[in-house]
Design brief:
Strand content: under 5%
Helix content: over 70%
Number of domains: 1
Shape: elongated
Number of helices: 3
Order of helices and strands: HHH
Distance between the termini: 13 Å
Structural class: mainly alpha
């Protein structure tokens, strides 16, 4: 499950950077594209959270 935590953290960081850089983007299409990218990250992060919530503690500890 370590890779899931890593992917979640990487997506969170990427989403934060995209949101921060949206301020400097001038065109409406760039802002729409940025929002699409953020929504993609949010969707995958929610999927990871669901997967981790359904995983048993025994599986997580590797026993």
């Amino acid at each position: 499950y370590k890779f899931l935590f890593t992917e979640w953290a990487a997506r969170h960081a990427g989403m934060t950077l995209i949101a921060y850089n949206m301020i400097t983007w001038a065109t409406n299409t760039s802002i729409i594209e940025a929002e699409d990218l953020i929504q993609t990250h949010i969707y995958r992060m929610e999927q990871i959270e669901k997967l981790l919530k359904t995983a048993s503690i025994q599986d997580f500890q590797g026993t």
